[in-house]
Amino acid sequence: MAVDTVPADLCSIPALMARNARRFPGRTAYREKEFGIWQSWTWAEALDEARAIGRGFLALGLNRGDHVAIIGRNRPALYWSMVAAQMCGAVPVPLYQDAVAEEMAYVLDHCGARFVVAGDQEQVDKVLEVQDRLPAIEQIVYADKRGMRKYDHSRMNWLADVAAEGRAAQARLDPELDRRIAELTFGHTCVMLYTSGTTGKPKGVVLSNRNIIETSRASCDFDRLTEREEILAYLPMAWVGDFIFSMGQAMWAGFCVNCPESAATMMTDLREIGPTYFFAPPRVFETALTSVMIRMEDAGRLKKWLFRTFMGVARRVGPAILDGKPVGLADRIAYGLGSVLVYGPLKNTMGFSRIRVGYTAGEAIGPEIFEFYRSLGINLKQLYGQTEASVFITQQPDGQVRSDTVGVPSPGVEVRIAETGEVFYRSPGTFVEYYKNPESTASTKDADGWVATGDAGYFEEGTGHLKIIDRAKDVGRMADGSLFAPKYVENKLKFFPSILEAVVFGNGRPWCVAFLNIDLTAVGNWAERNNIAYASYQELAGHPRVLDMMQGHVEEVNRSLAADPTLKGCQVRRFLVLHKELDADDGELTRTRKVRRRIIEEKYADLIAALYDGSTRVSTRTEVTYEDGRKGTIAATLEIRDVAGAGPDARRKAA
User: Fold this and answer.
1) How far is residue 576's CA from residue 578's CA, in Å, rounded to a whole number?
2) Stretch (H or E) spanning 38
3) Fewer CB atoms inside 10 A, N or C side of the chain?
């Protein structure tokens, strides 16, 4: 690839942290909310904390090349632990904090972690539950000591004590720590992140210092990110996006990382911080908009009129004003008045008042939702990326933002489309290898560095913007030979706030059918406004009026598909609303909420058969996992609906 553009003395995360401590010693680097109070650390203080933990790790015997598992919610101490591990020449391996013990056991065993840094008692308990199968684990370090007093501490330490020991041994251990930091190069491993395991066991993606730092530099330059940015670190630490935003870019630009108190307080903490740089999957933006629309339903007549009137102005001219395009004086005045009366207070309520750059990715976002936020003056854009790319493959430049593309190749990234329609890329961010898996590495990355994304897409003529159709492995053919692209249809269904999840089937079949999950918050509020009583998710999901609503949504999607000559064969002819939410604990979703299509096909084979055999109702029993890990079963009888708008003979064939 290209010659390194990053100075050789900034070839590691510890080196970047040291540079920031020199350049911005008094600037706030981290904040964490605990017990309702925000605590802050400057770059100089953060470096001191990381070095103290690093010396403590050395005292505990951490060796070069060891793997250090990091498990917990976003906390400065856990980010510092990752930097401390890197200082010692070890490799941090973040795990999903909501993973069950069995899922963690696979990753801990596969990477051979000697040290585990756990956020709290819950995470320690998960490790202890499977520790008898993990002989490599020698030390468990915990950040929060609540509930830990009566545990066996022979191989367990409080992180604050580890740091205190590191401070006490500063004179003795500083030379060794400095020696190990000086050994780090662009080629050393920066982090190992595990894929979500959509189709099988998760794979350990090895990312080098070059991968992370080059990508962070290029993406910061692309959006002109500086030390003045504020971000909210709330996404899983095991996800590559959080590592790039909260570690790579934060270290490169020197901006502040804010950690919320909990998932429950995230939206409140978001409003208090007012980030200038923000990433969220579509579901976060959809949920925020659903909350706004629910409140507007309960608002007075004047507020409703103001909202409708000025949102009409915003939809008409807001995106053009945001992109710097010419807009008439009268419209500018109306938009300015709307900013005072509606848009400003609305953005402040959602915590989006200061956003300068916002991104969404992971799934397609509904055009109406995307345009809603841009009409308010929020610079929301889309990107396309993967763990194996250190996130960035394509991005949308300012002034070229659209809801139906994922942008142009990111700086330093080459993208090509194979004859099969699959998207390939290569870049400085391209991963080194899959850990202990040379076969998968060779099948994904060729000798020239080109990586197969597994996604099907094409470049739009004239603009050079990339459009993603679906996962290449999921794109198939209907029985009549027409194209089958389930993800495309599922995303259209999920554009409706009342539909949380959708799974479409039809490959090799005469027509498409679908499973739907209702969004309990949105549909529950709708039920309350319409005086519909219900006692459980299952009862609400099966209510006739809810089914009528879902049918209307499916019919609307069918009308949209009917106008697309390529995908008109994907219209949904029959559907049912599942009696439970698809859940990662039940193996139906990955920890990043991606559908495990094959598992769902096997688990609900009886429901799929009923959708195709003409049944109008189907009884089923399903195993579920409760929050405490216990297993149980739920029984239900589900109504199957035929759908209009899926072709003139849809009902006849479905029957």
Assistant:
1) 6
2) strand 37-42
3) C
Nearest to 127 by CA among 81, 93, 160, 161: 93
Q: In terms of DSSP H, where are the helices of 520-648? A: 520-529, 537-541, 544-562, 597-603, 605-612
Range 430-443 burial, b when 16+ CB lie within 10 A, else e: bbbbbbebeeebee
Amino acid at 360: T
User: Would you state the structure tokens that stand for residue 58, as one six-digit string?
Assistant: 């050395």
Asked if residues 361 and 384 have their Cβ atoms less than 8 Å apart, the reply is: yes
Structure-block tokens of residue 297? 């339903």
Q: Do residues 245 and 279 touch, judged by C-beta distance below 8 A?
A: yes
Q: What is the pTM of this model?
A: 0.84
The residue ranges of every structural domain in the chain are 31-279, 476-654
pLDDT at residue 621 is higher than 70:
yes
Question: CA neighbours within 13 Å on the CB side: how many for 64?
Answer: 9
CA distances from 236 to 239, 243, 281, 435, 471 (A): 5, 9, 12, 21, 23
Indicate the residue type of 400: Q
pLDDT at 126 over 90: yes
The answer to whether residues 316 and 340 touch, using CB atoms and an 8 Å cutoff, is no
pLDDT band at 645; cut points 50, 70, 90: low
CB distance 359 to 352 below 8 Å: no
Structural tokens at position 230: 């504020």
The encoded tokens of residue 156 equal 């367990």
Domain 476-654 -> CATH class: alpha beta
> What is the structure's pLDDT at 199?
60
> What does the block give as tokens for 494?
């999920």
- Start-to-end CA distance of the chain, whole Å, equals 58
- Please give the Cα distance from 228 to 445 (Å, whole number): 37
The Cα–Cα gap between 271 and 627 comes to 29
Torsion of Cα atoms, 60 then 64 then 69 then 74, to 10°: 90
Given this structure, which CATH class describes domain 31-279?
alpha beta
- Which backbone phi and psi does 290 adopt, to 5 degrees? -60, -40
Alpha helix ranges (H) inside 199-281: 209-222, 240-242, 250-253, 266-273
The tokens of 424 are what?
């390939």
- CA–CA dist 523, 497 (Å, integer): 8
Report the alpha-carbon distance of residue 310 to residue 302 in Å, rounded.
Answer: 12
What DSSP element (H or E) covers 412?
A: none
Rounded CA-CA distance 68/112 in Å is 9
Structure tokens at 294: 């629910």
Number of C-beta neighbours around residue 226 at 10 A: 12
C-alpha distances in Å from residue 556, one per residue of 82, 90, 455: 48, 53, 26
How long is the chain?
Answer: 655
Place of tokens 């700086």: 411
Distances (CA, A) of 293 to 406, 463, 497: 27, 35, 10
Structure tokens at 67: 């793997």
- Report whether 70 contacts 92 (CB < 8 A): yes
Tell me the Ramachandran region of residue 595: left when phi exceeds 0, alpha when psi lies from -120 to 50, beta otherwise: beta
Question: Strand, helix or coil at 611?
Answer: helix
Q: How far apart are CA 360 and CA 156, in angstroms?
A: 39
Both tokens assigned to 646: 């899926």
Q: pLDDT tens, 175-194?
A: 999 999 999 999 999 999 99
